[in-house]
Structure formats: structure tokens, C-alpha cells
Amino acid sequence: MEVEDMSFAAVSGKDRNIFYIAPTQIQARDIVWETFKRKLFKIADFNEQRLEIKVPTQEGGYSIIKLSGWENRENFRGKSAYKLVFDEVDTMVEFFLGWQDIFRPTLLDTGGEATFIGTPKKENPNLRRLEKAALTDTTFATFHFTSLDNPYLSQVELESIKNEYKDNPESYRQEILAEHIDNSGALFKYEALVDIFSNTIVKKPEKYLTVDIADDGTDKTKFSFWEGLEEYRREEFERLNTEGIIQKIREYAQTERIPYSQIAVDAIGVGAGVASNSLLDGIIGFKSSYAAIKTDTNIVLLPYATFIDPPKTSDYKNLRSQCVFTLADKVNNHQIASKVTGKQKEEIIEELSNYQDASAGEGKRMATMKEKVKEIIGRSPDSSDCFIMRMYFEVMAKVSPVQSDIKPRIWQHQEQRKNVAI
Fold first, then answer.
1. What is the pTM of this model?
2. Are 44 and 37 in contact (CB under 8 A)?
């Protein structure tokens, strides 16, 4: 179908550039090259090395159909396109960043169009997000076809594969019926993650600042500003040393009127020197491996014992897991919002979508380790760390007023209560 569509677009107007983009250039060749050769072999010139097809048009002159891979997306900057076709969209990493920053501008001077196709994948649901956009954007139209709708597929084989999938109905629904399947282990609902950046919430007046510090001081340090549970601003700086970070925190605390007790800093590596600096006395040093904060009533001691303030407990493996689970609850119930856009937005969505319940059955709830998420996405999930640290204050808010005197002790002595690093 897409070969027909691209061929028609090419021959019906001269000097048109038609691009077919698969996850890799090898896949692009394997999927459609031979089909194009069969379709256009009598009229077009084929360049096997460049995977380009030169097609004569009805108006005279030529149009070009070119096959490429998503891994070569940077090569499309500054180009002009009449039609773009993206195939297997759910396997393209950082798809929305590439679409918005690179490919969407190629259509500006032609008024051209783009088509997005593929089989839904629960791990990277780009198609699902495009469908969501189509609900409010009239320039989008969506169509859903299953393998059963394809007249070129053998009915015998379709019935046979249905029987083969009987013990794995989710895979059948995804691969054959092209349905969106939720990732059952994911802590964050994907649509709720996308909604973070359009949510309207009732904001509390308290302001907070969370700071994710680059590991070696040479990468980007992120400053995330919060009014209640809405992130209203974010600033990033490259190669900011310890003194520079301290100065920025002091400056922001004054201009934004944020108390030091409502500022949290990633206290690993360079951040340890920031969190312990005497000029920032009172800020919170956040470490993933700190013990979880005890906020839940210990029901084992009730109702036979009487306490003014019953003993508290926690069923989280460490502080980071406690904050990730708390964040998931806020996100899934649309209680958190952010005004960041562009690359920062896309990174937050990608990072948080890869967190799962990784509890090991020992009675303690645990979220996916940061290093594991790093393996999956190919970079450190630093953009969402500002969200996770913001949850520290939500967790601390559960400490009862009677126990409020323990807060300074938590801040001062967390290092002594630290678990083995996980």
C-alpha cells in the first residue's frame, strides 16, 4: 500500500523528494526495495548503492524516492521533503525528538505530508501517542488494520498462527490484531506520562528546588523549580563546577524565595560537596541508597497497644524506590504537572516509562535500578531524577506533626541509616 502511495506521489509532480524511513537502512532495503523494483522497473532508474529511485513524472523532469534508516536521521537536517513515510515507528528511539527537530521542518516549503505505520509495541508506544494527538489535532487521521484485513495473507496460515499463540494471547493481540498492549510491569501509565505536560492541577503556594548534578561536573547540571506539584521552570548548565553550583543555588533561593529546607540536591559525587557546604546549611542531600523513610502505621502493634503517635514502618527497599513509587502514584492520578518542553519533555517520558516494579519477593518494594534504566535507554536517566527528588518532600509530608522533631534527625543522620548501595 505505501509503495503504491509513494510511487503515485513521485510520478504526479516533478522535483519531489519522497523518503521511506525504517528503523535501519538495512531494514528499509529488506522491506520495500524489491517491491519498488517490481513496481517501477520499466520506468525508473535504480541506484542500488544509494538506495535511490529516479522516477520520471507526468509534468516532465524527475522525482526521487530514497530509502533510509532512523539511525541516519541527522543527515536529513536542512533537506526538503514532499512525503515522509516512517515504518515500524514503535521501534524508533527518541522518535518525537527526531520528528519535531529534524523531519517536521523538511515539509515546511512543500506543504507535504507524513505517514506513520507499524505494529504497536508496548515498550515504546510512539504510535499510541500519535493516536492520542489525533484526537485533538485535525491535521492527523488514524487508521487501524489487522493481519486479518490483509487480503494477501493466507487464511490457512492466519488460523494456524492463531492456534500457535493460544498460550500467549497478548502477543497475538499485539502482533496479529495490532492492538496496543499495556506493559503490565510498568510503574507509570504511558498516557499519564504524556499528560504530565498538559495537566492542570491545583497548586500549593510552597516552592521547591531540586538539583541533579552532573557526575563529574563536566556534563549538564539541571535545576528544577516547583510550585507545589507543578514544575514551572527548568534550567541546565554545562561544565558547572562545585562553586558555580553553590552560587546558582543561593541565587535561585533568593530570587525565587525558596527556603533551603525545600531544596534537594543529588548528593552523589560532586553533589556531596554541594550538599555539605556550609553556605547551603539546611538543604537536603539526596542519595538513592538511603533507607526508606518510615511513614506508615505499624499495624502489628495495633489495636492492643495505645500510642499517642503509633510506631511507623516502611516496605520500600530504599529511599529512591520509595520516591519512584510515590511519583508513579502522583503521575497515574494526574496530580503532577510540568511546563518543560522539547528534548527535556521527551527524555522525562522515555526515562520514567522504563521503571518497573522490580521487587524481589523479600517484603520490600523496589523500583528498577537506575543503572538498569541506563542500559535500556543508552544514557543516564538524569532528566527524571529531578521529579524523583521532588517526591522526597511528599514522603516527608507524611511524617506526622507529633513526629516532626524527627525530620532534622532524618536530614542529619540518613548516612548512618544507609542501606547497602543497590
1. 0.78
2. no
